[in-house]
């Protein structure tokens, strides 16, 4: 998996980084915690420019947040809950998740968008209640961009700084990433079954 992601980024360059981060925000097949450090490795090797990597990753994360914002804004909380009840199990999002995220957003407002972009578990979900609450688009864009910039910078710099350990990290990360991938799949299946069970009792 290590070499596969490296290959995708090498072939796609900055556009590849942007695309992977965009997809990671829509439906995370590969977490940003893997994508950006590896892009940082390539920047340290001289294949890419670190500033370009950070900008591409930030833009991908930023653009990936927009569809969820517009979904929340156009559908509203009740319709989002109905949608989550009908289709959300495939994205492991339940009506309860939508409701709790909305309450959390209402309690924290703009800060929820900014800090939410720094928390792996809610990086994508925070865009939905922001849209539902009709947070002004300029504010949403600003806080999303600021949070995404910090997140991608930290991950990229971490990969850049560790470039001297590239070979050692590759040896451990490739089998380790398979464990991470299996864990992600396992959690997805667990959430899928859990939400399906909740639907049966509703």
UniProtKB/TrEMBL annotation:
Keyword Manganese: no
InterPro entries attached to this UniProt entry: DedA_domain (IPR051311), VTT_dom (IPR032816)
Keyword hit for Transit peptide: no
Membrane topology of the entry: Multi-pass membrane protein
A Pfam match: VTT_dom
All copies of domain VTT, residue ranges: 30-160
Protein's cellular compartments: Cell membrane
Alphabetic keyword roster: Cell membrane, Membrane, Transmembrane, Transmembrane helix
Stretch forming the signal peptide: none
Superkingdom classification of source: Bacteria
Membrane-crossing residue ranges in chain numbering: 12-30, 50-71, 140-163, 175-193
GO CC annotation: plasma membrane
The name this protein goes by in its record: Membrane protein DedA with SNARE-associated domain
Source organism of this protein record: Pseudomonas duriflava
